[in-house]
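thought: fold this chain, then report.
action: predict
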Amino acid sequence: MAFELPPLPFAADALEPHISARTFEFHHGKHHAAYVTNLNNLTKDSDLAGKSLEEVIKIAAADLPAKQGIFNNAAQVWNHTFFWNCLKKGGGGKPGAKLLARIDADLGGFDKFKEDFKNAAVTQFGSGWAWLVLDGGKLKIVKTANADLPLAHGQTALLTVDVWEHAYYLDWQNRRPDFVQAFLDHLVNWDFVEANLG
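observation:
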């Protein structure tokens, strides 16, 4: 069964002025769609056809040189689908009490979490992602380059922000710090993050 491009979980213009419908036209409609198409072409008639996206990522990550193209496209399909769910109209603010208590205990408080998460996103050289993950029972902030993702490192992703230029350039140009701040202040879907925490 072929991989499919999932629809956005909101209208394309729902997150304006922070992320425009035009950005989603390219980011979801072209970039994410291309990763899906490439992944289907790379896995067609192979032993990976019919496997779940997570299985493909784990298998391809275990054999990186030979399956780099498969890993990159599969991971980017997963990363983007996850990122869309990290966003919502009227998001941002603070999470619920359970997650807030974990952030206080593991990351030194909510303000420090925001500062450290933003720093991870802003200092990711080139393309990549900043993540809030669960690793060994503790919350951590990590960043990954290109298509890399927590799943390949035995971590559970809770939240991510995409810092590839195509994620923000039409709306924010070279102001990555402002984009990440807008993400934290206005867009984070804390309900989704808390559901990932379990």
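thought: worth noting. Residues 21-43 form the longest helix (23 residues).
final: tokens above.
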